[in-house]
């Protein structure tokens, strides 16, 4: 419950203070006196964005502060969830600094606007003049039915599952796009991969092939040079081997004379053994050298394949070609495995839709269960408000599609007169009738929501006389279970209030300011008389005003 409201340096308001109580409170004032300004300031406490232009004196900060008694409303869990300090007498404050910066505080702790909005939804409902038009808005119609059906937890669960479904659907779309792109490239990638695989790439193969190519291309030169080398080593009497043996024999004869000669002998003996081994290998190499045009052609062909692949892929080594081959294997696999991944994704979406359908069916059942009672209550209240023949029909049909709040299609239809046909409520009702229907809806919601405070901004638009008297009775009845504040121009409603405040303008030294004061006794009689008959108050208007108060 709102227990006090302080507004400083806001628009036409210099400094006003209101102390409020439970029950039914009335606020009156001439058009343009500042009632909407007060509501604008109050909406800042509920998380509305601040407007620097609303500061009255640009050299000072604007401060709006509201105190709420929340001891009876079980809000500790909400405070904990928003990481706020819980106080039974909670104070919300908004400040707009001369710099244009806005700050918010809950129980003197800095808070963000989202926390104000979450808390504000549980503390206060401001019914503006424009909200009556929302009766024809489908989202508002769902909001009313879901409030009566206590669907908050089901809707939260549904929306969480819906978010997961959107993620899965986005992933599936991405998979399909990747598959489409992979399909375009698949044939080309497969061709490149096959080409590389047919080359049977092995690390070091290029060097080996190039060496073998050189051997096969130079058979005649190899034969001549190897043969000559063997001949120079093995030739009788003048060959290197014969000369080395003779030198070794010479040193052997004198090796016993000195250790130096012995060492030289041993070294010559080692050279002799090494030269014999070299001669043997040269002979073996010479035996292996033979012309093989077929092998030469084959080796040359394999080398050309490697050179062409390196040129095509702009690389210089076989190892780089092997790396490209591995990458192509992955790309081809993505395309070949895409169908399996898409099938898996489609299955996950199907399962998620089954989960959503179950929650949506629960939502549908809960909504359907409260509609008959709600319709009956609305029609009863409308009968009291001068619409005895008005009938409301609420159509609820479960669809195949998933919407943001379930699978239901909801439509409120109204037949305002006896024998009349049903039509959309915004088309079937006049402005005054919409006001009455909205009051009926709000009065029913109030019993379910247990909201501490509701403010009606001219809910009486388009009505007068006995209907206004009936509306006043409903507002007064609502005030017995919650705090109801009504801004009104009708004396029939103003007379039913437990307390009465008047907003008015007055001229200051160099400006006009808005003030508010509580009316008591004769002041209240005078205000009602003026609302009845204008500024020239007659005796009959005074008598009528007293009758309304009594």
TrEMBL record:
What does the sequence similarity comment in the record state about its family?
Answer: Belongs to the RecN family.
**UniProt cross-references to InterPro entries, sorted A to Z:** AAA+_ATPase (IPR003593), DNA_recomb/repair_RecN (IPR004604), P-loop_NTPase (IPR027417), RecF/RecN/SMC_N (IPR003395)
MF-aspect GO terms: ATP binding
Annotated coiled-coil segments of the chain = 155-185, 261-292, 321-355
Return the GO cellular component terms, semicolon-separated.
Answer: bacterial nucleoid
According to UniProt, the name of this protein is DNA repair protein RecN
Q: SUPFAM superfamilies from the entry?
A: P-loop containing nucleoside triphosphate hydrolases
* Function as written in the Swiss-Prot or TrEMBL entry: May be involved in recombinational repair of damaged DNA.
Q: Which residues form the AAA+ ATPase domain?
A: 21-523
- Example of a GO biological process term: DNA repair
Species whose genome carries this gene: Salinimicrobium profundisediminis
Q: Which UniProt keywords apply?
A: ATP-binding, Coiled coil, DNA damage, DNA repair, Nucleotide-binding
Q: Any signal peptide, and if so, which residues?
A: none
Gene3D superfamilies found in the cross-reference section: P-loop containing nucleotide triphosphate hydrolases (3.40.50.300)
């Amino acid at each position: 419950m709102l227990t006090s409201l302080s507004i400083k340096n806001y628009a036409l308001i210099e400094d006003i203070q209101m102390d409020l109580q439970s029950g039914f409170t009335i606020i009156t004032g001439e058009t343009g006196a500042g009632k909407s300004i007060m509501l604008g300031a109050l909406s800042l406490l509920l998380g509305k964005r601040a407007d620097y232009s609303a500061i009255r004196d640009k050299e000072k900060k604007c401060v709006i502060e509201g105190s709420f008694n929340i001891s009876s409303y079980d809000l500790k869990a909400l405070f904990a969830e928003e990481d706020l300090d819980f106080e039974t007498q909670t104070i919300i404050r908004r400040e707009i600094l001369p710099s244009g910066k806005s700050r918010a505080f809950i129980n003197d702790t800095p808070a963000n606007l989202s926390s104000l909005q979450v808390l504000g939804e549980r503390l206060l409902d401001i019914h503006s003049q424009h909200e009556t038009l929302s009766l024809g808005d489908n989202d508002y119609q769902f909001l009313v039915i879901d409030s009566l059906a206590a669907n908050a937890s089901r809707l939260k669960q549904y929306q969480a599952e819906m978010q997961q479904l959107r993620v899965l659907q986005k992933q599936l779309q991405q998979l399909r796009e990747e598959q489409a792109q992979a399909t375009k490239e698949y044939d080309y990638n497969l061709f490149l991969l096959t080409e590389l695989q047919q080359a049977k790439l092995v690390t070091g193969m290029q060097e080996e092939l190039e060496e073998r190519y050189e051997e096969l291309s130079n058979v005649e030169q190899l034969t001549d040079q190897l043969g000559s080398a063997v001949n120079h080593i093995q030739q009788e009497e003048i060959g290197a081997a014969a000369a080395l043996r003779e030198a070794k024999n010479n040193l052997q004869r004198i090796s016993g004379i000195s250790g130096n000669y012995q060492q030289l002998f041993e070294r010559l003996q080692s050279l002799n053994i090494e030269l014999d081994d070299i001669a043997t290998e040269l002979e073996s190499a010479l035996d292996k050298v033979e012309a093989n045009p077929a092998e030469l052609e084959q080796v040359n062909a394999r080398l050309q394949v490697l050179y062409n692949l390196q040129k095509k892929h702009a690389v210089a080594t076989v190892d780089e070609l092997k790396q490209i081959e591995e990458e192509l294997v992955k790309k081809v696999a993505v395309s070949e495995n895409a169908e399996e991944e898409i099938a898996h994704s489609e299955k996950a979406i199907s399962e998620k839709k089954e989960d959503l359908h179950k929650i949506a069916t629960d939502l549908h059942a809960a909504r359907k269960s409260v509609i008959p009672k709600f319709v009956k209550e609305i029609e009863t209240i409308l009968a009291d408000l001068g619409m005895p023949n008005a009938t409301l029909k609420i159509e609820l049909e479960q669809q195949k599609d998933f919407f943001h709040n379930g699978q239901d299609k909801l439509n409120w239809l109204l037949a305002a007169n006896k024998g009349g046909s049903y039509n959309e409520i915004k088309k079937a009702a006049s402005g005054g009738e919409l006001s009455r229907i909205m009051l009926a809806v709000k009065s029913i919601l109030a019993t379910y929501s247990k909201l501490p405070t509701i403010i009606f901004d001219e809910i009486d638009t388009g009505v007068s006389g006995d209907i206004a008297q009936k509306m006043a009775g409903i507002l007064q009845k609502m005030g017995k279970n919650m705090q109801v504040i009504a801004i009104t121009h009708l004396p029939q409603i103003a007379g039913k209030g437990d307390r009465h405040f008047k907003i008015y303008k007055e001229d200051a030294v160099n400006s006009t300011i808005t003030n508010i004061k509580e009316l008591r006794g004769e002041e209240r009689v005078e205000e009602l008389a003026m609302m009845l008959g204008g500024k020239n108050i007659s005796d009959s208007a005074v008598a009528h005003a007293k009758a309304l108060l009594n």
